């Protein structure tokens, strides 16, 4: 779930394909890292370090750089088609395409072995292997001045900055490319037919954050279902059977 700027609203997101799921996971790690690294407590520095390790582990296991390049190339092809349409906003589209070129250039300039500095950093690798255990090395680092901890995290983060910027950019473009509809889920249930002509990549549900229920989304190859669930006093999930109004965004490029 992502909170909107409006404190009375919340967004629940469900990716349709694995590439977008991967980007959302990385975005979540980056946002937590960005928030906690600025706070001057050992606990926040540990959370920031933990999220950096999660990012590193993801980038080590999966070829994210090439996935980002393919995604932005796909966006470029679509926008090249859109800009040919007579009534299209060519100024806005040109601006987006210029940003795409900058992001792509940064990714292409990122060396294939860009993680080597982190691979060869003895303390960072110690943290990767032992962040879940009690040890004096990490405890010692957490007692250092906040400026020292922050500077070190920023140095590590700088190595993967092009990945971070690209993930933000791809997801921002996708979220802005959406069909928005206000929906009434009758008896707490709504069925969405996924059109084969439009490759939906992400579903977003917007609703008030102070509701006592939340959406549960189930995806299939041709449809998606949304049920609204509450957590009762026994911590059991119960499906709501009343009409519920929400805003649905179907995001595709």
Kindly list the characteristics that best describe this protein.
9 strands; YacF-like; alpha+beta; 253 residues; five-stranded antiparallel beta sheet; 51% helix; four-stranded antiparallel beta sheet
Determine the number of helices (DSSP H or I, runs of at least 4 residues).
Answer: 9
In CATH, what is the homologous superfamily of the largest domain?
A: YacF-like
Might you state the CATH topology name of the largest domain?
A: YacF-like
The number of strands is 9
* Radius of gyration (Å): 21 Å
CATH architecture level-2 label of the largest domain:
Orthogonal Bundle
* SSE string: EEHHHHHHHHHEEEEEEE
* Adjacency order of strands in the biggest sheet: 1-2-5-9-3
The shape is globular
* Main sheet summary: 5 strands, antiparallel
Number of domains: 2
Give the CATH class of the largest domain: Mainly Alpha
Estimate percent helicity.
Answer: 40-55%
How many angstroms separate the termini? Answer: 22 Å
In terms of per-residue confidence, which ranges show pLDDT below 50 for 5 or more consecutive residues? 1-5
The SS-based structural class is: alpha+beta
């Amino acid at each position: 779930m992502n909170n909107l700027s409006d404190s009375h609203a919340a967004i629940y997101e469900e990716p349709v394909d694995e590439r977008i799921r991967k980007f959302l996971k990385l975005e979540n790690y980056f946002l937590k890292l960005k928030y906690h690294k600025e706070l001057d407590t050992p606990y926040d520095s540990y959370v920031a370090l933990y999220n950096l390790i999660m990012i590193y582990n993801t980038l080590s296991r999966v070829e994210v750089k090439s996935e980002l390049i393919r995604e932005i190339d796909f966006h470029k092809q679509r926008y090249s088609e859109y800009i040919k349409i007579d009534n299209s906003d060519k100024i806005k589209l040109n601006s987006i395409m210029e940003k795409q070129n900058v992001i792509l250039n940064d990714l292409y300039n990122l060396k294939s072995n860009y993680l080597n500095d982190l691979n060869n950093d003895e303390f960072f690798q110690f943290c990767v292997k032992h962040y879940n255990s009690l040890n004096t090395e990490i405890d010692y680092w957490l007692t250092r001045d906040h400026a020292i901890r922050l500077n070190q995290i920023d140095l590590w983060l700088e190595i993967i900055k092009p990945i971070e910027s690209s993930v933000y950019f791809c997801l921002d473009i996708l979220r802005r490319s959406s069909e928005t509809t206000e929906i009434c889920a009758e008896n707490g249930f709504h069925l969405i037919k996924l059109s084969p002509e439009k490759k939906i990549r992400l579903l977003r549900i917007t609703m008030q954050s102070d509701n006592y229920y939340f959406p549960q989304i189930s995806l299939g190859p041709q449809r998606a279902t949304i049920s609204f669930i509450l957590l009762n006093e026994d911590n059991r999930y119960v499906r709501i059977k009343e009409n519920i109004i929400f805003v649905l965004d179907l995001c595709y490029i």
